[in-house]
Structures are given as C-alpha cells and as structure tokens.
Design a protein that fits this description.
The protein has 110 residues and is α+β, with helices and mostly antiparallel strands. It has 1 helix and 7 strands, in the order H-E-E-E-E-E-E-E. Keywords: Signal.
C-alpha cells in the first residue's frame, strides 16, 4: 500500500472518530417509522431543522406510483394521512411530534 493511500485512510479515520466524539455524526441522522394504511404502505422519517421536525412520508401501493408528503412539525403538532377503505370509510395514521421523537399510530374511525 502506498504512503498516499495510508495517509488518506488515516485522515478519513481521524475525521470519523472526531465526529463521533463530538456527537456531530448523529446530528442529521434521519429517524424512520413504518406506516401501514391497508393497501398503501411506506415509511416516514424526520430530521431536526431549526427547532422543528421535517417529516417526510413516502407511501405506495404494490403496483402504483409512490406519494411523498413533507411537513414541518413543532412540539405537540400532528398530521394525519388517510386513504379510502372502500365502503367502510378511511384508513388513517397520525404522525405526532412528542418532545424529542415522532410517534405513528392508527386513527380509530367512529
């Protein structure tokens, strides 16, 4: 192995170790949650952005085009995603920002 390769590898290793030590390696790490809306399934993830959570949800049917929804949530805010469930109404999930996390729960229709 040449000196240049060793030096480059060492520089990358030191940068990674330094970012882990300072905590910055996880600052922009997305956190993901699974979404199940019956015929549509997907994932929602969030990143922290200036005191808000930027939530991105992507849903798709097995053989359909995906749908992407983005929103900013402040503490205590929620957004509901719904899809038709035939004659029986809607299938819905609620994405809520609670303190330092995102919760995904089914919405029970009356």
């Amino acid at each position: 192995m040449s000196f240049a390769k060793v030096a480059a590898t060492a520089a990358v290793a030191l940068a990674v170790i330094g970012s882990f030590a300072s905590g910055s390696a996880f600052a922009d790490t997305p956190r993901a949650k699974s979404i199940n809306l019956g015929a549509m399934n997907g994932v929602a993830y969030y990143t922290e952005e200036a005191g808000s959570f930027r939530v991105v949800a992507t849903l798709a049917q097995r053989e359909g085009m995906p749908i992407r929804v983005e929103t900013l949530l402040a503490p205590g805010q929620t957004v509901v995603l719904s899809t038709a469930k035939g004659q029986s109404g809607l299938e819905s999930v609620e994405l809520s920002r609670q303190a330092d996390g995102l919760t995904v729960r089914p919405v029970v229709s009356n």
